Amino acid sequence: MRIALLLIVALIRSLFSVGQSQAPAALSDSVTPYKLEEVVVRAYEQNRRLIEVPASIGLVGQPALVRYSNNSILPALNNIPGVRMEERSPGSYRLNIRGSSLRSPFGVRDVKIYYNEIPLTDPTGNTYLNGLGFYNFQGMEVIKGPAGSLYGAAIGGAMLIRTLPGDWKPGAEADYSLGSYATNNINANVSWGDTAHQNYVDYNHLSSNGYRVQTQMRRDIVSWETQLKTSEKQTLHAFMYYSDLYYQTPGGLTMTEYNKDPRQARPPVGNTPGAVQAQAAIFQKTFVPGFSNEYHISEHWQNVTSLYGSYTDFRNPGVRVYEIRKEPHFGARTVFQYKKQLNATQLQVNFGAEAQKGFFTTADYANNQGTPGAQQTNELINNWQYMIFAQADLKFRHGWIITAGASTNKSSIAFSNLTPMPPVSQTRIFENKLAPRIAVLKRITRDISVYASAAKGFSPPTVSELLTSTGVIGYNLQPEDGIDYEAGIRGNLLHEKLHFDINAFFFQIRDAIVQRIDTNGVYYYVNAGSTRQNGLETYLSYHFIDQPGQFISNLNAWISYTWHDFHYNSFIDVNSQSTTVMDYSGKQLPGVPPQTVVAGLDIGSRAGVYANISYTYTDRTPLNDANTAYASSFNLLGARIGYRPIHPSKPAWELFTGIDNVFNITYSLGNDFNAAAGRYYNAAPAVNYYAGISIHPWFR
Predict the structure, then answer these.
(1) From start to end of 260-320, where are the E strands?
(2) DSSP string covering 319-374, please?
């Protein structure tokens, strides 16, 4: 490819420029590790340096995002120990924080996600994260474990998305990359204004034919943001995005089908059509506008209030039915903060409320080869949820910090089935649930802190879990709740060359919600008694070289290790149709590999050349409650190399190319847990390549 040839020429030129007199190069963000004293996190509304936050938090910034291809945030998120994002097919994501994907056949459940100051998660607990593209993310904070004390029904954790760059400057940028399977990624953005009034518009287009049959995808996103500082006390932030996503769904394969041809789509069986015959796909259009107001009331008081609306049009021709969903909803969140110095003690109190209201409709039709046929069900779904929360933080002398908070939550889902006459209505109300959390942190030295916490979390079933595509409502499905205990240590050693972040947790969940898939491909859910989830999560990085004047100006190695011992503590499953009784007590939770390793080597040079090498090991993973089927373990290797000019003229530019799955490993990712007839397997891409160019900015 022409871009790859240009990159090779640039690399050769850079080798001959070593001896020339040049100013030290600005280090590529992709090889710069973060320092605890410099990183400020927003998690739990604390706005503190990471070393002073008593919680297990994973950070994803530009350094992690740009070390892979520019197509997806998936590999950057997987750098965080305890976090696992999977792509079942292009455009179909599943996010797993400490086993939370147990109830997510696709999409994101059991994790609360915020887009700037507004909840991206809808009132029922579902999140269309795949409606956002790579260029919509400037950074993410992932809170692992129950985060209900401030974020409500979030037993799996929470994610805070930041969309504006921390160092904003007016300019423009154009990005283009291409890759295997006819992948094309185009992005263009313009930012203008000044530090008091910032404006930002972005357009992104991503398309791919996919690795398997029936895996084409296309996504177009337009987003706009403005931030206005009206005075020293007040800042207004408004934003919106429109996302138009289409992706085909190939369906799961049996082991026999997978071994014969992993690229095939689900074939027809008997009277059930295959994915190709059904033209199985997702058509998803989402529009989200939002507004927030930050106001510093006085020296001690401030408030952030946000309002948003959202509308999703969702169409899914599947192997059994053609589903059409329309999901308008709106909501608000307000947070008051009080800060005061009490002699040698710093007090910070946060309290507020969040409420969401939705008016959904869901209708199922016969699927006539990708077009809706006769109507089968028609549901009106009226849902709402609210929470009230408060948290107090005390920072004492000698490095002690104590945090205590709690929220009270209530939600309701009302179903009106319009298919029978007269219509039938049912309501599920999930009463007030208290989600408390307490944490203690001690700074042992300036560069090392230890912490311990205890938190209780809960998560009610979503609409998709309560209502199957056959119109059956899960009246007996109960919220899951649990208690999490954890302890951790983080810091820097050896003159800040060695960075470490280690935590251990003990998590017990009652009434865990587990998915099932019947022979017709219908998802339904049951409560699974109790689970025992223990784990150790470790992140280490070492900065070998930090000498801008040398040819190899930076060299950084890192490793992320996850050990998860997740089992059913007590789970006896009774099949209502066959009256079969199965005891799964002591079995491993499906979808959770016991061990995962992600490691990388990042190299930067004075000449402007950089390289990022990545390695991933995933342990074999149980695919059903009985632990009779497993996805094999696999090892993956990938790399990206690029070139940025040392003294860039305007516009600045960058060339890059890369390879994923170097050894062409056949493996399954995004598996369908507990699928009938053993249809667990979704083959991941073979060896694939990409290359791209970025030009920015045109006026600064």
Answers:
(1) 281-296, 301-317
(2) SSEEEEEEEEEEEEEEEEEEEEEETTEEEEEEEEEEEEEEEEEEEEEEEETTEEEE
Residue 380 has pLDDT above 60, yes or no: yes
DSSP string, 557-592: EEEEEEEEEEEEEE-EEE-TTT--EEE-TTPBPTT-
pLDDT for res 372: 95
Which secondary structure element, helix H or strand E, spans residue 277, and what is its range? Answer: helix 275-278
The contacts of residue 394 (CB under 8 Å, 6+ apart) are: 345, 346, 347, 401, 402
d(CA 685, CA 455): 39
Between 644 and 313, name the one with better pLDDT: 313
Query: What local confidence, expressed as pLDDT, does residue 31 receive?
Result: 35
pLDDT of residue 32: 41
Residue type, 195: T
142: CB partners within 8 A, 6+ apart: 57, 58, 59, 60, 77, 80, 83, 97, 157, 158, 159
Q: Which of 692, 662, 556, 650 is nearest to 612 (CA)?
A: 556
65 φψ region: left (φ > 0), alpha (ψ -120 to 50), beta (else): alpha
- Say whether pLDDT at 22 is over 60: no
Q: Which has more pLDDT, 585 or 245?
A: 245
pTM, entire model: 0.91
How far are the Cα atoms of 39, 65, 184, 609, 613 from residue 599, in angstroms, in the given order? Answer: 22, 15, 28, 21, 8
Q: Using the 8-state DSSP alphabet, how is residue 190 labeled?
A: E
Residue 524 has a pLDDT of 73
